[in-house]
Design goal:
Elements (H helix, E strand, L loop, with lengths): L2 H4 L6 H4 L10 E5 L3 E4 L4 E3 L17 E8 L4 E7 L10 E7 L12 H14 L2 E6 L10 H14 L4 H6 E11 L1 H16 L7 E7 L16 H14 L26 E9 L5 H13 L5 E7 L6 H4 L4 H15 L1
Parallel strand pairs: 6-7, 6-8, 8-9, 9-10, 10-11
Antiparallel strand pairs: 1-2, 2-3, 4-5, 5-7
Helix pairs in contact: 4-6
Amino acid sequence: MPKALVLPLLLTLQSLCPMDPNPNEEILYESMPCIRIYKSGRVERFFGSEFTPATADPDTGVISKDVPVDPKTGVSARLYLPDIGADSSKKLPILVYFHGGGFCLGSAFNPTFHNYFNSFVSQARVLVVSVDYRLAPEYPVPAAYEDSWIALKWVAQKPDAWLADHGDFDRLFLGGESAGSNIAHHIAMRVGSEGLGSGMEINGLVMIHPYFMGSKKVESDELNPEASESLASLWTVMCPTTTGIDDPWINPMVEGAPDLAGLGCRRVLVCVGEKDVLRDRGREYYRKLKEGGWKGEVEIWEAVGEGHTFHLFNPTCEVALAQDKTISNFLNR
């Protein structure tokens, strides 16, 4: 993940972490102050691995808990439930969420995501299932897609009391930011081709600053050419078997990619940031859905003056709250 995309949160990391590389090992990929990957396979992560426990948040009343999903792979999830008060019979929209981090950073238990969901769930009044999938390069892509599919199938079985008692499975959504948005798209495509069984469907898809690439240059690449090149390089390390940045996994709009008409949901919300190098990839995704053969409803919302995943770094700013409100309205419609 290019440091330009996460720098607002990392200004103090260089004084906290031993960041000098091992002079005896050759570096395969490096994006400081976030991650360093050596050709030996060793990985140094300086960001995203922090853990905060599930809890009852005193400020919002949101409660959370951790649940195992697949003991074989170690896939798990953190569930968030808003304060339902005396109205415990009311069913809530379910958002199955995949965190970002370039497929190699972050977790469902990271304090950044935990704090964000305490705030968002309180506002949106939704039940969130935040999926903790295995990270590359130790588990190269497509492992994240497989783990996320397992998690969605787990949710569809209603295995947990919170889901069974409080979840409205007629309002089941997928979502994510950055690489998590990429995952959400591919899971929705798989739903379209394989289904979830028992007549269950995905109501909508929330795509926040999607991590899509492509060899065809777009205007937003020039906002930060270094970051754009780093994202392209990162993909080839995360998915060693890839054919490149026009691989349909990272460029679902490329000619020859699976037809977006097969997207397995009824509605899509695309959120982009005006100053995000990935902005125009998100805009293109919106246009392809709008103008192609997909029969659902798609809308786009742009954060004026903001960059990649700004809402995680400054969740109480006016634009972040506006984005949350847009997503909340989408989920509760």
